[in-house]
Model the fold of this input.
Amino acid sequence: MTQLGMPFLMDTPSVEGCCRLAEELGLDFVELNNSFPDCSLDVLSAPALRRLAAAHGLFFTLHADEECNPFAFDESVRQAWLGSLERALRLAADTGMPTVNLHMARGVYVTLPERIVFMYEQYGDRHRMHVEELRAMAERVLMGTKTRLCIENTGGFLPWEQAALETLLQSPCIGLTLDIGHDHAIRNQDLPFYEAHRSKLWHMHGHDALGTHPHLALDDGEMDWRARFAMAQACGARIVLEVKTPEALRRSVPIARAALSAPSIRN
Done:
């Protein structure tokens, strides 16, 4: 059965509170998020997380700080973000987390009269070097562990971002997270990339969406989330029910379970 989890919720502002809710709903895991003060790397500890996991019969995944940018041109800034991400990876490995999720930082762009220029595309050689350094760091920390770094789509991967992803995905320690609502907002622009890399789809952020408004409870939007859940099931990816309130989560869990157990989605 596909593993289902919940995100860290603002309305449940403690790790233990999220664990209690996940246990109540029979979920398999909680995805902590370093962007929240109660989930910052200065607060989380491997022994405490192991105790909570054992007490509530679940495990954790981790969402790196959503502003994390390991490609920044300023070397002091880049090293700070690399160091933060390395700490997150080490915490995850020490705690037995299967996944650390990372947004693909797009960087700064310049709006010219007739086009938009992305700095990471313009200075491609430097960006590629930083991408390779991220890959090397992930391998140094994660090789020999069960933890993997998964890159998440946000606003549609541009061609130069796809090239960077191809470099990252050469590593056995790096895979993909598909956020189905983000992809719906851009009319499934990223879906062909994920279809071409199904063996690397290890994690999914699942929710409904209405136009460009994602993170809705299942069946509260317009998207064919069942098809995406079937894709996750076929790839062996776990699914975070990435809604934003306990009420939406309570409504979504039984709907997700029913869909994942239906013969049409299993086949």
